[in-house]
Design a protein that fits this description.
Number of strands of chain B: 14
Distance between the termini of chain B: 21 Å
Strand order of the largest sheet of chain A: 1-2-4-3
Structural class of chain A: alpha+beta
Radius of gyration of chain A: 47 Å
Oligomer: heterodimer
Order of helices and strands of chain A: HHEEHEE
Distance between the termini of chain A: 96 Å
Strand content of chain A: 15-25%
Number of helices of chain B: 9
Shape of chain B: globular
Number of helices of chain A: 3
Helix content of chain A: 40-55%
Largest interface: A-B, 21 and 40 residues
Order of helices and strands of chain B: EEEEEHEEHEHEEEHHHHEHEEH
Shape of chain A: rod-shaped
Largest sheet of chain B: 6 strands, mixed
Strand order of the largest sheet of chain B: 8-4-1-2-3-14
Strand content of chain B: 25-35%
Helix content of chain B: 25-40%
Number of strands of chain A: 4
Chain lengths: ~220, ~325
């Protein structure tokens, strides 16, 4: 038996840890206040830094804005010029130079042959599209029409050789792979032993390349 | 904030004995059911403050822990061993209230100690502590560490410590404990571990100090020093000053032996006068029984350097603080 009479009321007991409740509360509140102050200071610092940076950038932009606008303007012009150049290149690609054609024909014309009329055309035609949704497809086609006469009794042979030679001009990229003899008949007006002929020659259809659209000017 | 405290015992507790001669403090810890005394000290008396004064108690760091088992001494607290008839319709508390016949605000408590053979009667140890004194001590612990864990009477706390030691025996022979305080001494006679007589006898150690001061014409501090060193035989002063005490001691022994039909074999001594070697000698001579100064630290593991060097030989003054701390650390 051990006598012990505790006269302390239960309500007089209080929780007491290594640190008092009041100290813990004070520390918590102070920590929260300190955290809020530090957070506010950090936000103020960030805001101040951002504002300062914006002002610096705005100042730099004010200095650079005319230059940037000029660059944009020049880029636009450059794009237009480039588009124009592309278009010219597209035209040049399909164009059949007339002097080149004449130079080749000159080499293959037989001595017994005389040209009365030479008509060269390099027309641009738009092929009708299969549907309305498709755009019209322009192309270029070389056409040549020759009227002339030959001397001698073997006019047919002379015209036939010329037709073959004409077909081979520019091989392998022949100018006019399609050559046809329209007419060959004796020409009494020119005299005995002369024949007049008419030849049609056609080149292949050469579609026009679409010129590249002008490059869009990039924002600086 | 008391809901989760429960009644579980603490593992680290400081016992504080608010006495007139000083604030006795003992810190006990419990680990793996082993109780160790880790620090002890006797500090200057805590001055009585006015109501509402919440001045904190300054304790050395070695004694500072979260909870304190408080005990209060002094002249006003009362302790009695009461035999109360078990009557229908009247509670023990009401009978105790009538027996004490107290005027004013008191805290009352009791602990039944009825022997197994006693029928129709409740024998109980009853205490009354003035509310004013309880508040004076508790106000010192109102804020921060330590918080109050228990509140006891000093002399009863000392008895509790004694019962945890030599007073807990089941021998057929009775033993006595004499706890000398400043204003009065308490005499407990225990038979088979139960108190059979409790008596408060005046005067206490203060009268002895006063007599030494007068006889040797020294100041109070020097008188206390004379008492402590034991260089002068104080037997005559004890006999002269405490004649009433010795007479009551003898009467109490005879009453207990006759009433309980037992034989007393020894007095154990604790309290302030035990620091003087002639105290036990005088009691033994007067009562005709061997008297032994009981060291409340016997049976306790004491950490190295737990007791300051200046307190060597004064361990008996720490009985109440040790008892209060033991009670809290071993409760319920």
């Amino acid at each position: 038996m051990r006598i012990r009479i505790d006269l302390l009321a239960f309500s007089e007991r209080r929780q007491q840890g290594p640190v008092s409740t009041r100290f813990a509360l004070r520390t918590t509140v102070l920590t929260l206040i300190l955290a809020v102050i530090l957070g506010a200071a950090w936000l103020f610092f960030i805001s101040h830094t951002a504002r300062s940076e914006i002002q610096t950038k705005e100042s730099a932009w004010r200095d650079m804005e005319p230059l940037v606008k000029a660059i944009r303007r020049l880029r636009g012009r450059n794009a237009d010029a480039q588009a124009f150049l592309n278009e010219l290149d597209a035209w040049a690609e399909v164009r059949q130079a007339g002097h080149v054609v004449l130079e080749h024909i000159q080499r293959v014309v037989p001595a017994e042959m005389q040209f009365v009329r030479l008509e060269i055309r390099d027309d641009i035609t738009a092929r009708r599209p299969s549907s309305e949704a498709e755009p019209a497809r322009p192309y270029r086609q070389f056409r040549m029409r020759i009227n002339g006469r030959t001397a001698g009794e073997r006019s047919e042979d002379t015209v036939a050789r010329f037709l073959l030679a004409l077909k081979d001009i520019g091989a392998p990229n022949r100018f006019c792979p399609s050559v046809s003899l329209v007419s060959l008949q004796s020409d009494p007006q020119a005299g005995a032993g002369f024949s007049s002929f008419e030849i049609n020659a056609e080149g292949e259809e050469r579609p026009l390349r679409h010129a590249a659209p002008p490059a869009r000017a990039k924002a600086p | 904030m008391t809901g989760f405290l429960g009644e579980r015992p603490r593992h680290d507790l400081v016992g504080l004995d608010f006495g007139a001669s000083g604030l006795k403090a003992v810190r006990l810890t419990r680990a793996r059911e082993k109780i160790q005394l880790v620090a002890a000290d006797i500090l200057p008396p805590v001055p009585r403050e006015g109501a509402g004064d919440r001045k904190r108690l300054g304790l050395p760091a070695s004694l500072l822990t979260s909870y304190a088992a408080v005990c209060i001494g002094g002249a006003r607290p009362a302790i009695r061993l009461l035999d109360l008839p078990v009557a229908a319709g009247v509670t023990a508390e009401e009978q105790i209230q009538q027996q004490f016949n107290l005027a004013g605000d008191f805290r009352l408590g009791h602990f039944p100690v009825t022997p197994p053979g006693m029928k129709g009667t409740l024998r109980t140890v009853a205490v009354a502590l003035p509310e004013e004194e309880a508040q004076a001590a508790l106000q010192r612990l109102a804020v921060g560490s330590p918080a109050p864990w228990s509140l006891e009477l000093s002399t009863l706390a000392a008895l509790g410590a004694f019962q945890a030691g030599p007073g807990g025996g089941t021998s057929e022979d009775a033993i006595g404990l004499v706890d000398t305080g400043v204003s009065a001494s308490h005499v407990y006679i225990l038979h088979q571990g139960r108190p059979v007589l409790i008596r408060r006898i005046e005067p206490g150690g203060a009268a002895v100090i006063e007599r030494i001061r007068e006889q040797f014409d020294v100041d109070e501090a020097m008188a206390a020093d004379v008492l402590q060193t034991g260089a002068i035989d104080l037997s005559a002063i004890y006999r002269d000053t405490l004649a009433t005490f010795f007479k009551q001691l003898t009467i109490s022994r005879e009453f207990a032996e006759r009433h309980e039909r037992c034989r007393m074999i020894r007095w154990y001594l604790t309290g302030g006068l035990c620091v003087n070697a002639f105290w036990s000698q005088t009691i033994a001579e007067v009562s005709g029984l061997p008297a032994t100064v009981w060291n409340p630290m016997d049976g306790l593991a004491v950490a190295p350097h737990a007791i300051p060097e200046r307190l060597r030989g004064q361990e008996c003054r720490l009985a109440a603080a040790i008892g209060a701390a033991l009670g809290g650390i071993q409760a319920p």
